[in-house]
Design goal:
Elements (H helix, E strand, L loop, with lengths): L8 H4 L2 H27 L4 H29 L14
Helix pairs in contact: 2-3
Length: 88
């Protein structure tokens, strides 16, 4: 067991399955809400299909946002104030 602080495994590992679970639950909640609306309004399968597709889009958007955060953590940051270390 290595105590190397530069390894990204332990920091990102446990949060990723939770992120996938959250995205999946978003998609499922939209689909279930569509089923309930269709059942009570008698419009099968209009709301089910529409809200399922919306849930897929929202889930992908959320996964993209999570991926951006993970890649931002792993990339080294550079100063943005114009001081790159070369004396002008």
């Amino acid at each position: 067991m290595s105590a190397d602080p530069s390894s990204n495994g332990p920091q990102n590992g446990p949060s990723m399955p939770l992120g996938f679970l959250m995205a999946g639950s978003e998609m499922a909640s939209f689909a279930i809400f569509g089923l309930v609306l269709d059942y009570f309004l008698g419009t099968m399968p209009g709301f089910t299909i529409g809200l399922t597709l919306l849930g897929v889009a929202v889930s992908f958007f959320h996964l993209i946002q999570m991926a951006k955060k993970v890649t931002a953590k792993t990339k080294p940051t550079e100063p943005t104030d114009g001081t790159s270390g070369s004396g002008s």
